[in-house]
Amino acid sequence: MSFFLAVLTGGLLSGVMYALVALGFVLIYKASGVLNFAQGSMLLFAALTYVSLVERGLPVWLAVLVTLLALILLGSAIERFVLRPLIGRPSIVLFMATLGVSYFIEGASQLVWGSDVHALSLGISDSPVSLGGVLVSRLDLVAAAVAGVLVTVLALFFQYTPAGLAFRAVADDQRAALAIGLRLTRIWALVWAVAGGVALVAGLLWGARLGVQFSLSLVVLRALPVLVLGGFGSIPGAIAGGLLIGAAEKLAQVYLGDVLGNGIESWFAYVLALVVLLIRPNGLFGGGATQRV
């Protein structure tokens, strides 16, 4: 039983890391209906910018602040100069635009920061710590705590602030939001800025775990099953989906690896997502489309 709990706990903590990446997707998709494939590149840009500034002697707090400002400007620029001119175009056009932005960010990052692999240290040891008799990574525990704080802050922001209420109105019905005088472009710019902040947190944590290298942007692929499982427009779904995917991967690797192959952890989440798509196309926590006539 203790072994099962150890595997389950490790999977849940890994799922938190997936959920952090998925959050950026959900925020933008919920507000504008755009599947932002550039989220992985924004994560990479955040990690590269931070580690490069620290290597050049900036204090950690200042490097975080400058990186956050850079991500806010980057997200606002993507919304203003790429997506805003494409309003009203088919969803596939918007998706391809974000795909192009992703490659542009990666190329520009390589041009500015170089292609060397960097070690990113947050001052947190990755040594195991006992939690109720179960050994878990200290870094994973910190990541889970940070994710919990981030989700709480976002929930309070969208629930109680005027900007958050405006965001929820736009997410529920864009035409009704326009009718009562809300400015969609301003709200979308705000959402992209918030998504940049989420990319900063995810980039630092993933960079500390994997190192800062250009393959870091591929972490975005690990978030896709999370989005399918939890629903593209649900913030709680992103968290729950991440936890479910993380736990399912680890349990499948341990208990089914001998039968289905040791590489099961790399594809099991996608099979699970496919099954969910066949049963609930909107995800476990996503609502069905509402038609107004």
TrEMBL record:
Keywords: Amino-acid transport, Cell membrane, Membrane, Transmembrane, Transmembrane helix, Transport. InterPro entries: ABC_transp_permease, BCAA_transport_permease. It holds the Pfam family BPD_transp_2. Its main location: membrane. One of its GO terms (cellular component) is plasma membrane. It is found in: Cell membrane. This is Branched-chain amino acid transport system permease protein livH. The chain crosses the membrane at residues 6-27, 34-54, 60-79, 86-105, 141-167, 187-206, 226-247, 259-279. It is a multi-pass membrane protein. It comes from Granulibacter bethesdensis (strain ATCC BAA-1260 / CGDNIH1). GO terms for biological process: amino acid transport. Belongs to the binding-protein-dependent transport system permease family. LivHM subfamily. GO terms for molecular function: transmembrane transporter activity.
